[in-house]
Amino acid sequence: MIEGTGTFASMEEAREFFAHDRFATESGMTLDELKYGSAVCSFEITPHHQNAEGGVMGGAIFTLMDFAFAAASSNVHRPTVAQQVSVSFLSRPKGRRLIASASCRKDGRVTCVYQVDVTDETGRDIATAVMTGYKLQN
Question: Of 26, 30, 32, 61, which one is least surrounded by beta carbons within 10 A?
Answer without folding.
Answer: 26
